[in-house]
Design a protein that fits this description.
The structure is a single chain. Helices cover about 35% and strands about 15% of the residues. It has one domain. It has six helices and five strands.
């Protein structure tokens, strides 16, 4: 099986390879069979996110938001990346014995990584860290991972898991870009993601019609172009509020 290359990216120096793929679910029933001893968490990039050029990044691409500006990846590569993400999650929980935030982006279609998703990723990290800092919630570790299959962040947090999940859900709802973020909280006791249903929260709405996003995705109710148009509208609306 082909493994996606992991790398830290400087947007000024690299011609990015990007890919937007459908979100295939990973069966986590065999997590106990994962040999965490074979994984060296220290090899994961822990570079801090530089937020100083966030506005200039979107300024430079504001007129050319293109989610297809990259290299498509295969379903096999996406599944491999998800398997590796689960291993990193479990390794982090084992090391810190604390809840973790596992962040990815909502990127439908066949290209998962592009300059515009790099911007979305940096903005999501900035907002999560700000929300934690305001509440004086300690971050025990931070991993920022740039793959052709998409950006990922894993953060060990010294805070009760359910309260952390509520905070992350609120960020997804309140921030103008929050609908484009997928912020999971993994409970260190169950080693599983905490479900929104535990808070009697409605399912996330579809980007296009507002109905249940999972149902729309499963039934393929909307075209990729419709989804991209909705995402572009969200980004442009947010950018307009900054000016």
């Amino acid at each position: 099986m082909k493994t996606a290359n992991m790398k830290t990216v400087n947007l000024d120096q690299l011609n990015l390879d990007c890919a937007n793929l459908g979100n295939a679910n990973l069966d986590q029933t065999n997590l106990n069979n994962i040999n965490l001893n074979n994984v060296n968490l220290d090899n994961v990039n822990n570079n801090s996110i530089d937020s100083s050029n966030i506005n200039s990044s979107i300024n430079n691409s504001n007129n050319t938001i293109d989610f297809n500006n990259g290299t498509p990846v295969t379903l096999e590569e996406v599944l491999q990346a998800k398997e590796q993400r689960v291993i990193r999650q479990q390794m982090t929980i084992s090391r810190y014995n604390s809840p973790i935030i596992s962040l990815t982006l909502v990127t439908p279609g066949a290209v998962k990584r592009s300059p515009i998703t790099d911007y979305l990723f940096r903005q999501s990290i900035l907002e999560i860290k700000n929300a934690l800092a305001i509440r004086q919630i300690p971050i025990l570790s931070q991993q920022y991972i740039y793959l052709v299959t998409g950006q990922e962040a894993i953060m060990a947090i010294n805070h009760p898991a359910l309260q952390l999940k509520q905070l992350c859900m609120q960020l997804e709802v309140d921030h103008p870009l929050g609908r484009l973020w997928d912020i999971d909280v993994i409970d260190p006791l169950t080693h599983s993601a905490i479900s929104r249903s535990q808070f009697v929260a409605p399912p996330r709405g579809c980007l296009v019609c507002g109905d249940n996003a999972k149902v729309c995705g499963r039934e393929r109710r909307h075209t990729i172009d419709e989804l991209f148009a909705a995402m572009t509208k969200i980004i442009e609306h947010y950018h307009a509020t900054l000016n």
